[in-house]
């Protein structure tokens, strides 16, 4: 339960504040003009935009922003990106600062939401596109377990679960392509595209065919179970899919000429670019492993400086543990600084039970 909040200015030097303030000097201050000056071509801003190698490389402004965010400690919890319903805490950004790190689904989902915010990427030459988040794969895969009965997964009394599955099925059927990020045991990412026009499941994998497809097969079986369940409850009409027997559609491995992974950790970066560029028949833009090596840091700058990042320049500090004498008198609003360009921090206090 949130028991209070306050606005803390980064350059405050108050010593008698009851809260533990992570920084009392101005070392974390950032001039708004830096944030306002940053602009990026990714995600693609229009159909006619061509992404070139320099679009993956950090500018001096990008690096300054990254240096600033690195000054924020990983603990306590600090939310630095909030884009729609996806958020990234400071500690989760470490995967973008370490060249051999595996991308977490929090980062994946935030960039997916940036892609979804581009209207021109919602409808491509292959038709209307719906992009799933990184978590949905787990639910679809769960439903693909043939050992579990449908009424065990969706009890008749649990209308919330049933309604959720129904909304998902109707959403999918209203699109020509559904992009699903697949996560193999938190070790490898690849993209599955349910292409209804072609009646096939397309696989875009930066490692080629070296990985098995059992996870994907279970995912498609799970979707089939949901479609069958919904079709028993209501008539599925006026939908865009010519055939609802999605589990019978063939898997088609898409051969990547240049967009191939040559290291052991860039799969998440390749995944995001496949999502951004795949039209249903081809990639709209070319990229290489070298581009992805640069894109790792660039991605951090893109997320942090995005105009739809609600935490842009003002991280949210989260306190999980009960503060001594945790009452409303412990929450103080400090005077604002004389410099109007200094960004403020939102600090929430959370009360926890032990």
How does this structure look, described?
It comes from Zea mays. This is Putative ubiquitin-like-specific protease 1B. Keywords: Hydrolase, Protease, Thiol protease. By secondary structure, this protein is of the alpha/beta class. The chain has a single domain (31-312), classed as Adenoviral Proteinase, Chain (3-Layer(aba) Sandwich), CATH 3.40.395.10. 31% of the residues lie in helices and 17% in strands. The chain has helices spanning 32-37, 60-70, 94-97, 105-116, 136-143, 150-153, 159-173, 214-233, 267-277, 289-305, and strands at 2-9, 78-83, 86-89, 123-124, 127-131, 177-184, 188-195, 200-204, 251-253, 316-319, 344-350. The strands form two sheets. It has a six-stranded mixed beta sheet, covered by helices on one side. Strands 1-11-10-2-3 form a five-stranded mixed beta sheet, covered by helices on one side. Helix 8 (214-233) links the parallel strand 8 and strand 9. The longest helix is centred in the middle third of the chain and has 20 residues, at 214-233. The protein is globular, with a radius of gyration of 23 Å.
């Amino acid at each position: 339960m949130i028991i209070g909040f306050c606005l803390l200015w980064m350059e405050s030097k108050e010593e008698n504040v009851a809260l533990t303030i992570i920084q009392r000097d101005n070392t974390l201050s950032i001039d708004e003009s830096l944030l306002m000056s940053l602009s990026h071509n990714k995600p693609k801003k229009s159909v006619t935009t061509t992404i070139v190698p320099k679009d993956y490389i950090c500018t001096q402004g990008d690096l300054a922003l990254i240096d600033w965010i690195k000054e924020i400690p990983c603990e306590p919890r600090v939310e630095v990106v909030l884009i729609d319903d996806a958020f990234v805490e400071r500690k989760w950004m470490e995967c973008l600062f370490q060249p051999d790190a595996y991308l977490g689904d929090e980062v994946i989902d935030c960039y997916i939401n940036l892609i979804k915010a581009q209207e021109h990427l919602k409808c491509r030459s292959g038709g209307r596109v719906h992009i799933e988040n990184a978590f949905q794969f787990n639910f679809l895969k769960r439903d693909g377990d043939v050992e579990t009965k449908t009424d065990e997964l969706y009890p008749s009394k649990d209308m919330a679960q049933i309604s959720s599955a129904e909304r998902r099925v109707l959403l999918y059927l209203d699109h020509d392509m559904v992009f699903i990020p697949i996560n193999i045991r938190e070790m490898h990412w690849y993209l599955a595209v349910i292409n209804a026009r072609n009646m096939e499941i397309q696989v875009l994998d930066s490692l080629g065919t070296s990985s098995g497809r059992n996870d994907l097969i279970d995912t498609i079986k799970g979707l089939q179970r949901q479609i069958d369940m919904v079709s028993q409850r209501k008539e599925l009409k006026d939908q865009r899919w010519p055939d609802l027997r999605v589990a019978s559609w063939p898997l088609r491995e898409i051969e990547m000429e240049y967009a191939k992974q040559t290291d052991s950790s860039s799969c998440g970066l390749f995944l995001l670019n496949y999502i951004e560029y795949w039209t249903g028949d081809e990639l709209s833009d070319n990229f290489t492993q070298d581009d992805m090596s640069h894109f790792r840091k660039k991605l951090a700058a893109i997320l942090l400086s995005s105009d739809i990042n609600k935490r842009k320049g003002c991280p949210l500090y989260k306190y999980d543990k009960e503060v001594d004498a945790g009452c409303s008198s412990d929450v103080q609003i400090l005077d604002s600084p004389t410099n109007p360009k200094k960004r403020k921090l939102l600090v929430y206090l959370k009360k926890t039970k032990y």
